[in-house]
Amino acid sequence: MKLFLGILLFLGTFSFMEFMAWFTHKYVMHGFLWVLHKDHHQKDHDSWFERNDTFFLFYAVVSMSFLMIADNTWFWYGWPLGFGILAYGIAYFMVHDIFIHQRFKLFRNANNWYARGVRRAHKIHHKHLGKEHGENFGMLLVPFKYFKK
Fold first, then answer.
1. Can you give the pTM of this predicted structure?
2. 110 near 100, Cβ under 8 Å?
3. Environment class of residue 96 by beta-carbon count within 10 Å: exposed (0-12), middle (13-18) or buried (19+)?
4. DSSP letters along 4-73, please?
5. How does pLDDT run across 133-148, given as a tens digit for each residue?
6. What is the domain partition of the chain in residue ranges?
């Protein structure tokens, strides 16, 4: 039963992180912390790193906190919660930073229906260079209207 609950918590956390990514992007990144996210939309530097990269630190700290609490207390729920956040972060990094923005030259030839849909949705998002219209579609659960065969 504990294993089943752990798996359920892991999957639920992973899924909830898609909502958190959308919410954080729309209301925080395109809100009061636009100063950190701006360089993701308006390249004003030549560096490989962006100020926008600091956002991953927040979720990394949350994830690691759950894992450390689980390791040092009775709160075993921290394991599936922490690993769910970590797994989403890895998936997000793979899709957004590696696949879409090609920060590492991998997956360049992916051209299936999911790849085209994700690229199309993200391109629509990036057509707005300013703080307004910060709507994000999520990275993994992109609206199906962008999936054309």
1. 0.80
2. no
3. middle
4. HHHHHHHHHHHHHHHHHHHHIIIIIIIIITHHHHHHHHS-----SS-GGGGHHHHHHHHHHHHHHHHHHS
5. 555 555 555 555 555 5
6. 2-39+50-108
